[in-house]
Structures are given as C-alpha cells and as structure tokens.
Amino acid sequence: MSWTDERIETLRKMWEDGHPASRIAEELGGVSRNAVIGKAHRLGLEKRPSPVKADKSGEKAGSPAEKPAAKPKKAAAQAPAQKEREAPKAAKPQPAAPAAEIAPVKAAQPLGQVDAEIEGEEQADAGVDPAVPLQPKVPLSARSDVDQSSTPAPRIQIHDPRPAPRPAPKKPMRPAPRSDKIKDKTSLLDLSEKICKWPIGHPGEPEFHFCGEASEPGFPYCNKHCAEAYQAQQPRKDRPGRTPMPNLPRPR
DNA sequence: CCCTGATTCGC
DNA sequence: GCGAATCAGG
C-alpha cells in the first residue's frame, strides 16, 4: 500500500482533527498505526497532544528535566555509524496548534430533541448535557462499539452508513482530479464542527464527499443525518458483534 | 494490562 | 521514504 495523494490527504485531515493514529490507520486500511505516525512525522505534521507528552506546568526547579535526546537504548547496534542528528528542530514558526479547538461531540440528547431547533443559525454551545454521555462515533470509521457504561437510559444505536469498512483492498485509487470537480462538494478538507460530516459515497471514489449542511449545534451531522445516525435501539438479534446486553450480570 | 504518540533504524 | 520495533507516558 503506497501513500497516494488521497491517503496522505486523509491522514493529514484526520491527524489535524485529532483522530488517534490507530483510527487513522484503520480508516486508511492497509497500514499500521506506526506507519501512520511515521508518515505524519515525515510529512512534517505538527505533533499532537499525546498522552506521552507530560506537559508538566513547571518542571522541578533545578531538576534536569532534560531528556538526553531520545533514548539510546539500542544504540549498540549503530556503533561505527555514529549518526548524530539532533539539530533539525527549531524550524517551525508554526503557531500553537489550533487542534484543541474542535470539540469532539460531548453529548447527545434523546431523539425528539434533535429536531427541535433546526433553523436558527445560532451556533451557541449546544445544550451539552453531561447526564447523557452518548458518544456517537462518526461514521467515518466502522466502529461498532457502543459504549454506554452506566447509562441504560435511552438506548441509542449508531447507524453506520458504511457497512463495508474496507471494501476495496486493492483498488487502484483514482487520480482524483480534485480542486476542480469537487469544488462544490464538501471534501474532507472542508469539514468543520459546523457542518454535517455525513459521508456521501465511499472514500477513494472521486465523487465521495460529505453532506456539508449546517450541522446541529453539538452534533457532527445536520438535523436530517442526526436522525439517521441516532436511532432508538431496534430489536437486533442478528448482531454478531458486541451486543449492548443491558442487564446481564457481569461476572468478575 | 490497555491506550497513546515518538523515535530509531534496517530495509 | 517506509514502517516494525521499540520506547515512554497516561
């Protein structure tokens, strides 16, 4: 699997959107998480707030607080070479990362509330209700894990518009004549928290794009697609994957 | 353990 | 350039 223009573009967008490398890898398919990270760095993408980035506000005074530049653990393998590359650092006038801007959907309300305020372009902070920890997964990926740790309340089912996550393993990726034809379509690059991210078509296809309508405040989709995405749990017995299993006595 | 991103280095 | 192996923090 090579890094085509589109794949790189997807990687870029998702990376900047704060998607974990593992998810990006899944989305792209055919590559590992490491590959994604490696590529991201090679592309010169900004480093994202990682769990590893112990951003201690105020190192210990007088403490080294200095990492000897990487961890020369297996440095033994490269004895004669002695590649001393360190300098390539300060070279990014890039201002702080704006990534933190996008809030990844905090909560959702039961149906009905959704079609409430459709019009009003008021993008005030949607009434985020911490009482309903619903974390709808963007259909961007084929995640099917419905996590509702302790909220048996209104069962919501995510309706993934893309039943076939990885349909084309060996598809020769079209040249993608972008920037001209898709001018009127919402591309991955046009996504923002204000527009509907409902995918139309399949990634990789030249016609693939996103809904683009104004999204519901606090939701990743427009009113119409919210209705599609968040549906009351329907009787599903043929669900092989992980079934919510409401009140099953959990052994331990 | 799991997760995450970062880095190194053989290919 | 690529990415597995590895590291390191949460």
Describe this structure in words.
By secondary structure, this protein is largely without helices or strands. Among the domains are: 1-48; 177-232, no CATH class. 15% of the residues lie in helices and 4% in strands. The chain has helices at residues 5-16, 21-28, 33-42, 223-229, and strands spanning 156-158, 199-200, 209-210, 230-232. A hairpin with an 8-residue loop joins strand 2 (199-200) and strand 3. It is globular. The two termini are 42 Å apart. The model is unreliable at 52-156, 158-182 and 239-252 (pLDDT under 50). The chain binds a DNA duplex (11 and 10 nucleotides) through residues 2-3, 20-22, 31-42, 47-54, 70-75, 77-78, 81, 83. Residues 90-110 have a biased composition (Low complexity). This is GcrA cell cycle regulator.
Short description, anyone?
This protein is mostly loops. It has helices at residues 5-16, 21-28, 33-42, 223-229, and strands spanning 156-158, 199-200, 209-210, 230-232. Among the domains are: 1-48; 177-232, no CATH class.
Helix-strand string: HHHEEEHE
| Inertia-based shape | globular
The percent of residues in helical segments reads 10-25%
Largest sheet composition? 2 strands, antiparallel
Number of strands: 4
Total number of helical segments? 4
Biased composition (Basic and acidic residues): 43-59, 177-188
Biased composition (Low complexity): 90-110
Organism: Pacificimonas flava
Protein name: GcrA cell cycle regulator
